[in-house]
Design brief:
By secondary structure, the protein is of the alpha/beta class. Helix content is 27%, strand content 24%. The longest helix has 12 residues.
Length: 147
């Protein structure tokens, strides 16, 4: 089953129409804290490593599994698209069935010339939050992993 791709506007409509749907923001904790879609939760698919650039989060799938069942309707987004595409594939391989990758991410996808090819959530004028407290931030999400 291929992961669906949806626009930020379509993602907003899904979240408004289906209160049980969840938006997983797979950006870093710092990116998430600087602004994210209202109602999103943060589970980074990678972490910044000063020596090597971005390093995969070895607990990504485990944290998602600890928080959401495999039949949960999940929208995945990042900053521009590549991380959410990778995260979507990982969750699909883990058996998640109702996944949608949000094109353009939070900040928008640009081509090599810098032209926006897919506007992101923020540029689409959709509601943004900087709430990073309990229940939405990565620290609280990873606490649910069973040791």
């Amino acid at each position: 089953m291929a992961v669906k791709e949806i626009t930020p506007e379509e993602a907003r409509e899904v979240l408004k129409a289906d209160a049980s749907a969840v938006y997983i923001d797979v950006r870093t904790e710092r990116e998430f804290a600087n602004g994210h879609p209202v109602g999103a939760v943060n589970i980074p698919v990678a972490f910044p490593d000063p020596a090597r650039g971005m390093m995969a989060n070895p607990d990504f799938v485990k944290v998602v599994e600890a928080n959401f069942p495999r039949d949960k309707r999940i929208i995945i987004g990042c900053q521009a698209g590549p991380r959410s595409t990778a995260a979507s594939r990982m969750l699909e391989q883990a058996g998640y069935q109702d996944l949608a990758n949000m094109l353009g991410g939070f900040g928008g996808m640009r081509d090599a010339m810098g032209t926006v090819v897919a506007p992101g959530w923020a540029a689409s004028g959709l509601p943004v939050s900087s709430e990073n407290g309990g229940g939405v931030g990565y620290e609280s999400m990873k606490l649910k992993i069973k040791s």
